[in-house]
Every structure is written in structure tokens, then in C-alpha cells.
Amino acid sequence: MENQTVLNMLVLSGLSDHPSYQLPLFLVFLLVYLMTLTGNLLIVLLICTDSHLQTPMYFFLGTLACLDMGYSSVTTPRMLFDFYTQKKLISIPACITQFFFIMYFAVTEISLLAVMSYDRYVAICRPLHYTQIMHWKSCVLLVLGVLMFSLLYCLVHVLLLLKLTFCRLTPLQSFFCDLPQLLLVSCSDTSINVLFMFILAILIGGGIFVLTFCPYIIILNTIMKMQSKAMRSKAFSTCSSHLIVVFIFYGTAFFNYLNPNAKTKSAVNKVVSVCYAVLTPLVNPLIYSLRNETMKTSLKRAVCRLIQK
């Protein structure tokens, strides 16, 4: 008969149990975290201080940078703490709280990427009406709508999680608290949680996916009809940066959550989790800054001002 003792603590399996790996991993991920904060904070500061970047496109990009900093700060410090202490214990309330913020930042980010697709559609396909459609009030309302939508979406999962009891000593096969892993260690009936997870993922996640990629069908068709090669190149450059970010985020997340072998999560799955939870917030500012001429020019101006001082 299965032990039904209710647990107050859960165990995170982490990336490695080997003692000699803990310090090197701690130093590597500390460096990655500091680079993530620095890169995203630099983008936010440039957008706030440079008048050339105070447009709807860069407003959304600055919001994405803030989300990346929050997303990384929910997972990486906890992982660094586990590397340092090597205990890997987390209380159930703390675990559910971490899951809430991870999901909140993730859902907000994919929703914002859909909004950014719409912004690119208006800019390229309806340039004469861009300032009328994407004025500051509408941009702020879109971001606020995304934040509220993500909050409600995550609260549904959290409220269902709070009704569960946890009595299995099996470690969570991850370095952070994730919904599939939490359901595996619960001794309650999780059928409602699983049902809601799939229904909401298909309806809401699928809807966001369609809203993100459908505008690009029209955008690519419009770009191909442009007469000027320079205009086509500029439009492709802007859109390709956004699409690269979208593909990285969706690709790694789909691999992780649609993997049928969730119960036997391998090292490959953990590497993929690191990619979308830790490395994606680092890569995003690099993609947008290195492929964006306006951003690079703004950075050069900022450096020149610092040198002159």
C-alpha cells in the first residue's frame, strides 16, 4: 500500500548530482545570469533614454526585455542556490509560487510575441495607418491586456494545484518547479488538472500560435511585392529577428511539454529546459541588438556620450 503521508517539502533533481560539477555549474550559470540581466537592462535603458527608439516597436521590445529579466530571475537564482547548498529541497508553497511566476512570464512572453507580430504587420502592410493604429494608448492597452490575460490563465492552474496533496518522495525531474512534474508527484486525482492543461494549451496556446504566425503570411507576401531592394532588406531584417526569437522559444518549449516520455525525463530534456528557461532570455537581446542597425547606432551614441564625459 502506497504511503499517503502528506509532504511539506519536495526535492528538485537539478542538472547533476555529481559533487565535483556543482561549483563549475554554479560559476557558468552565474555568468549567464549576470549577462542576461546586463543585456536586457541595457536594451531597456537605451529605449528609455534614446528618442530614436521611443516607438511602438521598441516599446514592445523593452517590455520583452523586462519579461526576460523576470523569467530568468525566477529560475536561475534558485538553481544557483541549489548548486551552492547541494540540498535541492523546496517547500510546496515555494514550489507552486515559482511555478506561477514561471508560467506567468512564459505566457506573457508568447502573448507579447503575438502582439509584436501584429505590430510588424501594421508597419509593413499598412504603413500609412501605422501611427493611427499603433499609437501609445493602444500599445499600453495591448501590454496591459496581455498582462491581465496571463494572470488569469496562470491563476486557473494554481488554484487547481492548491487542491492537490503531495505524498510521493519521487524527486521532480527538473531544476525548477514545472506543472507536469508536480502532477507526477501528487497522490491526488490529477485528471482535472491534466484535462485543463491540455484544453487550455490547445485553445489558448494554439490561438496565440496562430495569431503569431498568420500575420507573417501577409507580411511575406507584401515584402515580396516591394519594388525597392533596400526596403525588402530592411523589412526582412526586422521580421527575421522576431521570427528567430519566436522559433527558439516555441521550439524548445514544445519539445519539453509535448515530449511523451515525461516520466523518464532524460538529460536531453533537461538541456532543452535550460535552453528555454535560462538561455533564451540571454539570446533574445543579442538577436535584437546584433541584427538591428537602429539599436547598434543607439548603443554607439550612448558609448560616445560616456567617453565624452
From TrEMBL:
Q: Where this protein primarily resides, as one coarse class?
A: membrane
Q: Which residues cross the membrane?
A: 20-46, 58-76, 96-118, 139-162, 194-219, 240-259, 271-290
Q: Which top-level group of life is the source organism from?
A: Eukaryota
Keywords for this protein: Cell membrane, G-protein coupled receptor, Membrane, Olfaction, Receptor, Sensory transduction, Transducer, Transmembrane, Transmembrane helix
Question: Do the record's keywords include Cytoplasm?
Answer: no
- Name where it's found: Cell membrane
Domain (G-protein coupled receptors family 1 profile) ranges = 39-288
In what way does this protein cross or attach to the membrane?
Multi-pass membrane protein
Q: Name one GO cellular component term.
A: plasma membrane
Q: Which Pfam families match?
A: 7tm_4
Checking SUPFAM superfamilies in the record gives: Family A G protein-coupled receptor-like
What GO molecular function annotations does the UniProt record carry, in alphabetical order?
A: G protein-coupled receptor activity; olfactory receptor activity
Q: Which family does it belong to?
A: Belongs to the G-protein coupled receptor 1 family.
Give the protein's recorded name: Olfactory receptor
Classification of source organism: Eukaryota, Metazoa, Chordata, Craniata, Vertebrata
